[in-house]
Specification:
There is one protein chain. The chain has about 400 residues and is mainly alpha-helical. The protein has a 5-stranded antiparallel β-sheet. Strands 1-2 form a two-stranded antiparallel sheet. Helix 10 crosses helix 11. The longest helix is centred in the middle third of the chain and has 16 residues. It starts with 15 loop residues before the first helix and ends with a helix.
């Protein structure tokens, strides 16, 4: 579960002296005089949150500002993957097989969690597999020390300070020892990578031992994940979506304008399931998703897909979770093949697409790298003129075509 919200520029948070040193020497400089000063100033806020002095001191034992953590904040390049690359790297035969083995091993817990929270076992398993490879790697960072470094270094300081204070409260409440509270550099923790605020709101003591322990108790971790999804409106017994087949001559422009509609309306446009089976509930509302345009797999996405996105607000992530879940219960690969030779675009490249369209006489507004309705309409108009399927899909293949 990844921290949300817009990134705040690291440099704006640094005192001028520290910023000058950073620019001069290319090193990470903390925003406080030293770590002891930072910890001392933090105590009153922690105390106000109900953190005991004993827990606070234990959590900060051996703490020092970590340049390694700060470097990780700067190693988030604008890196693009196609949806195919994202899914193929995470949903494999081996991962599905491991999920089936875990389903057998933890069947009693998963069945109980489904009865209590209404979330199918394969969905919980898929999230577990996506987040930590079924507990194979939960992150190697001391959560308190990592979060403290982010705050001390001025990286999204307000957000991470709230998470840090919440993490201290989790320790103070006796759920986990400071040494066992480990996770990612950004504070995501345990088997299914809860941020501290999510832990506080949604973690459960599923095994009834008096502690909510998502690090060492797999039942607590799986139960907490099911509770999280339930809390955001998971609909029991319903799936995340369907892979679909589009009819010849499909009206892509009408589909994009329609956005969300009942399955009966999509079916009236000639859409069917690739399995050939009927849609179970015609009244379910869905949106169409064509991650590779008309040349690749297409989907109708249901309400539960958006619930999965509350875990990680990414269509690619939610599609991978849904697909892995289907593979765990015996489903196969997507029926439609992915197109070859395509690649994802960076924001600058998307702006280049807009600029090239504008140069060719299409109205895209101001090129900003954000693909909205104007850009889609322009892309479709260009595709029609070029004699290719006018699906409005923006990707590397489109950019190459525009360049030619």
């Amino acid at each position: 579960m990844h921290p949300s919200g817009k990134k705040i520029a690291f440099f704006r948070r640094l005192p001028m002296l520290a910023l000058t040193a950073l620019l001069a020497f290319g090193t990470i400089v903390p925003a406080f005089a030293n770590s002891a000063d930072f910890v001392r100033r933090l105590w009153p806020d922690a105390q106000a949150q109900g953190v005991s002095r004993t827990a606070f001191d234990a959590a900060f034992a051996g703490y020092s500002f970590s340049p390694k953590i700060m470097e990780l904040t700067r190693k988030q390049p604008e890196f693009s993957q196609t949806v195919q690359q994202y899914v193929d790297r995470r949903v494999t035969d081996a991962q599905a097989g491991k999920g089936r083995a875990m389903r057998s091993e933890w069947n009693q817990t998963l069945t109980g969690a489904q009865q209590r929270y209404g979330v199918q076992p394969e969905i919980v398993l898929a999230i577990w597999g996506m987040e930590t490879n079924f507990g194979g790697f939960m992150g190697g960072e001391n959560t308190i020390h990592a979060l403290a470094t982010l705050v001390e270094g001025g990286y999204r300081a307000d957000f991470f300070k709230r998470e840090l204070l919440t993490a201290l409260r989790i320790i103070s409440d006796g759920n986990v020892s400071p040494a066992n509270m480990v996770g990612s550099w950004a504070g995501a923790m345990g088997h299914t990578q809860f941020m501290p605020s999510s832990f506080m709101a949604y973690a459960v003591d599923y095994n009834g031992d008096g502690r909510k322990d998502i690090w060492n108790s797999i039942p607590d971790a799986l139960g907490s994940t099911a509770n999280y999804l339930k809390s955001f409106g998971w609909r029991p017994g319903e799936t995340w979506g369907y892979e679909i087949k589009l009819p010849a001559g499909f009206n892509f422009a009408a589909a994009r304008q329609l956005e969300r509609a009942p399955l009966s309306q999509w079916q009236a446009m000639g859409i069917t399931r690739v399995s050939g089976k009927p849609f179970p509930r015609q009244s379910d509302v869905a949106r169409i998703y064509m991650p590779a345009g008309a040349a690749g797999p297409s989907f109708l996405l249901l309400h539960n897909f958006d619930v999965i996105k509350r875990y990680n607000n990414s269509d690619s992530y939610a599609l991978a979770v849904g697909h892995l879940a289907d593979r765990i219960i015996g489903g196969g690969q997507f029926a439609a093949p992915w197109p070859s030779g395509d690649y994802a675009l960076s924001k600058d490249q998307r702006a280049q697409v807009q600029s090239l369209l504008a140069r060719a006489g299409y109205d895209v507004g101001s090129p900003d790298g954000v693909i909205g309705p104007k850009t889609r309409a322009a892309v479709m108009a260009f595709q029609n003129r070029a004699g290719v399927v006018a699906d409005g899909h923006v990707s590397g293949r489109l950019l190459d075509m525009l360049k030619r």
